[in-house]
Amino acid sequence: MSTDALLSVADLTASVDEKTILHGVNLQVAAGETHVIMGPNGAGKSTMGHVIMGDPVYTVNSGSIIFDGADITELSCDKRSRAGLFLSFQAPVEIPGVPLSSFLRASIAGRPGLEMRGKEFRRRVKELAAQLDMDTAYLNRELGVGFSGGEKKKVEMLQLLLLQPKLAILDETDSGLDVDALSVVSRGMDAYRSTCDGSLVIITHNTRILEHLDVDRVHVMVSGRIVREDDASLIPWIDEHGFESFEREADETADAC
Amino acid sequence: MDALKIKQASAMPAPTWGWLRMNDTAIEIPAGLERARAVTIEADEDLTETHASFEGAVEKLQERLDAVRADAPDTRACVRAAEREQELLDDLDTPALSAYQLAATREEIAGDVAHAFETGIGIDARSYLNFLAGGTVVLATEEGACEQAIVRVAGTSGHMAGAAVDVVAAKGSTLDVVISLDGVADSSRAAGLIGSELRVFAGEGARVNVTVYITADDVFTVLDDAGYVLDEGARVNVRHVVLGGAHTYTGLASDLRGDTARMEIDTRYLAAGDDTRDFNYIIRHRGRRTFSNMDANGVLTGTSKKVLRGTIDLIHGCKGAEGSERETVLLANKGVDNKTVPVILCDEDDVAGNHGATIGHVRPEQLFYLGCRGLSQEQAEALFTAAKLEDAALSAPDEQIRANVIRLGSALIEDFADFEEEIA
Fold first, then answer.
1. Where are the alpha helices (DSSP H) in B21-162?
2. pLDDT at position A178, please?
3. What pLDDT sits at residue A44?
4. Are B418 and A117 an interchain contact pair (Cβ–Cβ within 8 Å)?
5. A163-175 residue pLDDT tens
6. Phi, then psi, of B414 in degrees rounded to 5
7. What is the CATH number of the domain that holds A247?
8. What are the tens digits of pLDDT across the range A27-56?
9. Domain presence at residue B261
10. Distance from CA of A164 to the nearest CA of B (A)
């Protein structure tokens, strides 16, 4: 394990309903780095994001998650969030009855350095909304209710910029977005990197969203295992060849076992 | 004053199983309360200086209804059953009636508007609130006029106070009435009681909008009792916002007597700690093509309890009428107790009655999402409470009521006052 890693996942095995999804996964992300996790559908990429964030649906069978020098393997998700972890959802949930502005205010409450009072909060949120081409009328609407896919992802980006986490996991934030919305999400990621200098773990199928980012490491996941790690040069290779060779290798390894 | 209990309050017209314990409620009046004068009414003089009366308006309506009443005999079996003096063995075509059916049929035969008048909590609460008020204020509009009035009841610990208001909206007039039932507990945290008794006559084509805000602290018992009579083409919109009070009782009964009368009720409620909320709505459709809609939306937290009874009664003769009721309630804590009793009674063809309820706990994926943004279970619960209070503050009818909501919110949630600064 690298001593300067911000996030260190070691030999992580996790399951749901007694079915093992992640098999001894290792991942190290240093402060300020951008990592990409790629892989075919059903490879376990989203599960890994959720397990790192502490989704109680999953059981951690073995391994550990160290974040910012502390073992968070047993911590609840709210404590992981307050420690500086962030997960952007592939399909953000709707919460009827709760206006977006109330939710945002609650999410920053009690966070040292982020607490803002009344008008200052409103001003800050409006600034971020403008940065993301987001209509401020959404602030008074119920969280996620009636939002388009693009608007939901913009709200995720707005939270990323408001909460300024040390490390953000973006779970297919680019999926289902048109070109304009994709550009707004890219802008959000750029703003996060430039203003917070935080670490990013991007889970994606789509290499397009990575075009404007300086990627440090790429991890390929197949069948719940990281099967390949390399630098950013792997991205154009995958763009050209897909995941077939990795899947074939994984199958052969499984057969050999 | 000694402790008093109002029994069989807010009773459903047609009871269900007794063991479910929701047919009615008992209201305990705290002992030792002193009567206080704590009611203010803000209204133009032309609204309060009037010779009109609720009884007079009902009498005139009765005269008109009697004049157009069909003379043809009603040969329905239920009418024969209600009118016969004794049951005869050889009369097998006439059915036996339950006590409810008998009373309902006799009331229908009589067609007496004044006799049929009712309020949601019931006659005992009405008498008690009239006694508390000491006198009734009449707010009456002139034909075609447009007016507004605010009634404020400001309770204090150790005291009881109530308002009794009659509203008579003349033909084609518009009247907005706001009732604020607020109570501030002092350091003794002694119990208190506040309430309002409202009778509304909405004349032909009149439009009446009633908004009731309950923002009392958690030592108060609150009674909000109302009865409505709607003439032809009248439209009444009621908004009940129940946020505070240890024990609140909201009752509304409406007689849609005139053809095409419309009644819409929008109820928003919040119950925290060990608060109890009791609602009883009774809408009687008597006129043809009448319309009613009840929409309730609430949040229950802590170990609070709530009962909502909603009865739509489609009475014989209300052809083309349509009544709907719907409730959405969020149970933000496993310790809450929620009862929802939608009832549709029907004795007419060619009518529509709809009801629906969405009752849900916060789903695990919602809790995980909130957790991912740093909110614990307790903070998530506080968020649902804050959201309800903020919505009520933003839509408060005036600054004073908004301030009441902010005061109540600050007592329930840390830093709620920040919201005030944000919207100021």
1. 45-48, 54-67, 77-83, 99-110, 113-116, 123-133
2. 80
3. 94
4. yes
5. 999 999 999 888 7
6. -65, 140
7. 3.40.50.300
8. 999 999 999 999 998 999 999 999 999 999
9. yes
10. 11
pLDDT at residue number B397: 96
From residue A124, alpha-carbon distances to A114, A119, A160, B306, B413 in Å are: 11, 9, 13, 39, 23
Q: Which residues of A touch B360 (CB under 8 A)?
A: none
Tally of CA atoms within 13 A in the half-sphere of B298 that contains its CB: 34
Q: Report yes or no: B375 and B386 within 8 Å, Cβ to Cβ.
A: no
Tell me what the pLDDT averaged over chain B comes to.
93
**DSSP one-letter string for A53-118:** HT-TTSEEEEEEEEETTEE-TT--HHHHHHHTEEEE-SSPPPEEEEEHHHHHHHHHTT-TTT---H
Inside any domain, residue B104? no
Tell me whether residue B383 is in a domain.
no
* Paired strand residues for B322: B291, B352
Report yes or no: B368 at the A interface, CB cutoff 8 Å: yes
User: CB–CB of B373 and A81 under 8 A?
Assistant: yes
Contact between chains at B371 and A111 (C-beta distance less than 8 A): no
Domain span at residue B216 reads 35-54+118-362
| Nearest-angstrom CA–CA distance, A167 and A201 | 8
CB–CB contact A82 B382 (8 Å): no
Best B373, B379, B416 residue to mutate vs chain A (most A CBs within 10 Å): B373
How many domains, in total, are found in chain A?
A: 1
Q: What residues have CB less than 8 Å from A253, skipping those under 6 apart?
A: none
Tokens of A108: 């920053």
Residue A257 pLDDT more than 70?
no
